[in-house]
Every structure is written in structure tokens, then in C-alpha cells.
Design brief:
Blueprint: E1 3-7, E2 12-16, E3 25-32, H1 41-50, E4 63-67, H2 76-87, E5 94-95, E6 108-109, H3 114-122, E7 174-178, H4 187-191, E8 197-199, E9 206-208, H5 218-222, E10 228-231, E11 236-239, H6 244-248, H7 264-267, E12 274-280, H8 295-302, E13 307-308, E14 319-322, H9 329-336, H10 340-348, H11 352-358, E15 370-374, E16 378-384, E17 387-392, E18 395-399, E19 405-410
Parallel strand pairs: 3-14
Antiparallel strand pairs: 1-2, 3-12, 4-7, 5-6, 8-9, 10-11, 13-14, 15-18, 16-17, 18-19
The structure holds iron/sulfur cluster (3 copies).
Length: about 425
């Protein structure tokens, strides 16, 4: 039986197989696509921690793919978008006339979600809770297929040199970093006939109980992000576990200070594109509680510079992306919804506060629950898109769960000059 739940990313209620229920805190993260260098350090950090065993050879819980052609499994997003389109031709549109800061930040999604499309196709008591598909074995074979392959030059008007001019490059690609989104309304959980999948009350992490799972692969079929993966050797399904021992912060061998630390894939990021944390949930609304100086709250809810990945799927994913500046907007709007223009505008000419908060990405391992900014002098002036813009050397200070200072960084990186007598020493 379908219930009505509120999905703030869609700005409306939607059908979901279970009643609305929310955790106290929600595991969430922001990826800044603009900075990723596709080094795959994140991918290897996860791999070497969790998926190095027999039967897991094809499993990359974290992967970084080149868009638009790349995908792991191959073409996962175009396939699910195709299924949504088939269910509701031309319906994937947004009404952006009415927005507000929190409960409806991007307007209202008019189309059908994967849950609603399944009801339309199979009925409310149907055997399938979400539309989806099980990828063929060969679709998992090449996690980084089409690496660095660009698109767009063919047929593009203008000269060759125009192809890489902002605001939209005519020839383009970008890297999309992906892990399980620990969705608010997980399709994997909705589809599991064994009730083997659960969402934890304390942090919203979605886990598969390996004792209950019988490997029916209904979750593999239903997860629109294809982040639930079958393991032949155990005949069960596995997925990203959000490195929960690190998030709990209770194991003295992993977190000796007794505070949560960021996951392996986040902490290892060389490009400093990742910031992960916990968003406090308002028990009355199920939405993020106002937490003005939590960096995630600031980026997602206040500044709205980070957007959910394919919000139209309807799972309310908890991964957010700062969209790439150079990519054609129509493509980005389909991927991140109608907030794309505003997000790129904010990122291209960052406010004083945003510039300071962006320094917190990968500054250290402990999860930052609060930040403070100490104002510094103006150090640079220019024009961006014809408007004056100034840079200030502000200092941002981050605090852990115990409200202890764990990081302090200035916008302008300090220069250290080595004393002459140590020039050749290491
Ligand atoms: S480690 Fe960071 S920069 Fe490197 S591929 Fe992963 S997300 Fe991108
Ligand atoms: S991304 Fe997929 S596997 Fe992860 S919680 Fe959402 S539906 Fe489940
Ligand atoms: S959060 Fe942990 S388990 Fe999940 S992809 Fe990252 S490293 Fe892997």
C-alpha cells in the first residue's frame, strides 16, 4: 500500500511504500564537481577498505565517472531516465513559480517519481515498488569507461577556439563522483521483500542486514543510482555502509578523540572536493532543522550552491553537488534540477561567507558541526560578469561534535619562506 510522504527536494508530497519516518541526524555530503581531478584516490580508499575480497571484484562502492558518456554500471542514468520518460512522456518538468527557502527550495516537480511510475504501471499493490532494471553482467565490467571523453563539438556553431569559452563550453566533459546517497526515501529499502534493508535512526545511514538478505536483487533493480550490488560468492547484496564506525566516533582505535570523522572516500580526496557531515533533522517536518552555521546546512539550504543528484527520481538523495561551471545548462538542469543557474552564479562570484566555507573542504578528518568566521582585510578586487567583486582574507574556524576547534584557515594561503641555511634540506 502506498503512503504519502513529503519530499522537500520535489516541493510536494509523493507516494512511498512506507509511512514517513525520519532519523535524528542524516549522513550527507557535498561534492564540488569543479575541483575534481579524477585521480580515483577516493575509489581506491573505499576499495582497499571494504571491497577487496573474493566475489567483490566488480564492486566499486565509490566511483568517479566521466559524463556524459561514462557510467558505472554503463548508462545507468540514461536508462532510468528513459524508463521515467516511458512511464510519463514529456512529464519531467518543474514549476518554479513558487519557491521558498526550505520546504520548497527549487519549486515543484510535475513529473512522476520512480515510485509513482511503478504505481501507474503495476498498481498500488503491484509486485514492483519502483521502476528500475537489473544491469547485465557486462554493464559492470568497465567502471571508468569513456574516461576523459568529451562531447559536443560536432555541429556546434562557431570557431574551433570558441569550444572552451565560458559560460558554456561547446566541447565538454566533467567528472561525476558517486557513492550511495543514503536516501531519505530509499528505493532499495522500499523494494526489499525480506525487509533486510533499514535506515538507522541515529544517522540515517542505509544498511543491508546480511543475515536477512537472500540475494533476490530487488534492491539492485530498484535503486535508481545503481549503488546496491550483488555478490555471487555469498548470494547476498552489498552496498556502501557510509564507513559507519567512523561516523559513530565510538571506537577508540578508529576515533581516539571520541568524535565522528569523515568516511574513507571523503578523507582521502586529493582534490579537496568533498565535505561530509551530519545534518540535524527537525522531527516535526522531517526536513533539515535550521542549523545556520553547520557548513552543510549553509551550502545546501542557505546558499543553495549544492544540489541533489537527479532529484526527480524521488528518493531524496543526501548527496549534493556544486555543478560544473562550463557545462551546458540544459544537461545540468536534467541532472540537478532547476536550481542550477542560481548555484553556478553563486559559485562563480562567491559571497564572502561562501568563500570562507569553501576552505573547509578536506581541511582535516573530523566532521565539522559548526563554523565561525573572523573577518580580515580586503586583499583583491576585480569584476566578475561585469559586476565588482572583492576578496577578503577572512579566517574560518571549524568545530567538531564536542565543539572543540579542529581547524583554522585563512582565505589567502600563507606563504612560508625557507631560511637560506636550510635551502637544500628536506
Ligand atoms: S579523490 Fe577527490 S579529486 Fe580524486 S577522483 Fe576522488 S573526488 Fe575526485
Ligand atoms: S542510493 Fe540506492 S542503494 Fe543508496 S540508499 Fe538510495 S536507493 Fe538505496
Ligand atoms: S562512505 Fe565508506 S563505504 Fe561508502 S563509498 Fe565512501 S569509503 Fe566506501
Amino acid at each position: 500500500m502506498a503512503h504519502e510522504v513529503y519530499n522537500w527536494q520535489l516541493g510536494r508530497k509523493m507516494a512511498y511504500p512506507y509511512k514517513e519516518a525520519h532519523p535524528n541526524w542524516q549522513f550527507a555530503f557535498v561534492f564540488n564537481i569543479n575541483r575534481c581531478i579524477a585521480c580515483q584516490t577516493c575509489t581506491m580508499a573505499c576499495r582497499s577498505t571494504w571491497t577487496f575480497s573474493k566475489g567483490q571484484e566488480h564492486m566499486w562502492w565509490n566511483n568517479v565517472e566521466t559524463k556524459p558518456y561514462g557510467g558505472y554500471p554503463q548508462f545507468w542514468d540514461t536508462k532510468i531516465l528513459g524508463l521515467l520518460e516511458e512511464a510519463n512522456p514529456g512529464g519531467q518538468s518543474w514549476d518554479t513559480a513558487e519557491t521558498n527557502g526550505n520546504g520548497r527550495p527549487y519549486g515543484v516537480y510535475n513529473g512522476q517519481t520512480i515510485f509513482e511510475a511503478a504505481i501507474k504501471r503495476y498498481g498500488p499493490e503491484g509486485h514492483q515498488r519502483a521502476i528500475g532494471y537489473i544491469p547485465e553482467d557486462d554493464e559492470w565490467r568497465y567502471p571508468n569507461i569513456y574516461e576523459d571523453t568529451a562531447t559536443g563539438l560536432q555541429g556546434a556553431p562557431g570557431k574551433w577556439g570558441d569550444s572552451s569559452l565560458l559560460p558554456e563550453h561547446k566541447t565538454w566533459f566533467f567528472y561525476l563522483q558517486r557513492i550511495c546517497n543514503h536516501c531519505t526515501y530509499p528505493a532499495c529499502l522500499a523494494a526489499c521483500p525480506r525487509k533486510a534493508i533499514y535506515k538507522r535512526k541515529e544517522d540515517g545511514i542505509v544498511l543491508i542486514d546480511q543475515n536477512r538478505c537472500r540475494g533476490y536483487r530487488k534492491c539492485v533493480e530498484a535503486c535508481p543510482y545503481k549503488k546496491s550490488m550483488y555478490r555471487g560468492t555469498t548470494r547476498t547484496t552489498e552496498k556502501c555502509i557510509a564507513c559507519y564506525p567512523r561516523i559513530e566516533g565510538k571506537d577508540p582505535h578508529i576515533t581516539p578523540d571520541g568524535v565522528p570523522i569523515e568516511t574513507r572516500c571523503m578523507a582521502a580526496c586529493v582534490g579537496k572536493i568533498r565535505l561530509q557531515g551530519l545534518a540535524r533533522i527537525n522531527p516535526k517536518t522531517g526536513n533539515w532543522a535550521e542549523d545556520r552555521y553547520n557548513p552543510l546546512y549553509f551550502l545546501v539550504k542557505k546558499e543553495k550552491v549544492a544540489l541533489p543528484l537527479y532529484p526527480q527520481f524521488g528518493t531524496e538523495p543526501n548527496g549534493y553537488y556544486i555543478p560544473p561551471r562550463w557545462v551546458p545548462r540544459a544537461y545540468l538542469r536534467q541532472m540537478f534540477g532547476p536550481g542550477v543557474e542560481e548555484a553556478i552564479e553563486k559559485y562563480a562570484a562567491p559571497s564572502r561567507e561562501l568563500l570562507a566555507v569553501l576552505q573547509l573542504f578536506r581541511a582535516q578528518q573530523k566532521i565539522i558541526f559548526r563554523y565561525e568566521i573572523k573577518e580580515g582585510p580586503k586583499i583583491f578586487e576585480t569584476h566578475i560578469d561585469g559586476k565588482p567583486w572583492s576578496m577578503y582574507n577572512d579566517t574560518v574556524i571549524g568545530f567538531d561534535k564536542k565543539d572543540k576547534e579542529v581547524v583554522r584557515l585563512a582565505v589567502q594561503e600563507p606563504v612560508h619562506v625557507r631560511a637560506e641555511k636550510h635551502y637544500n634540506s628536506i
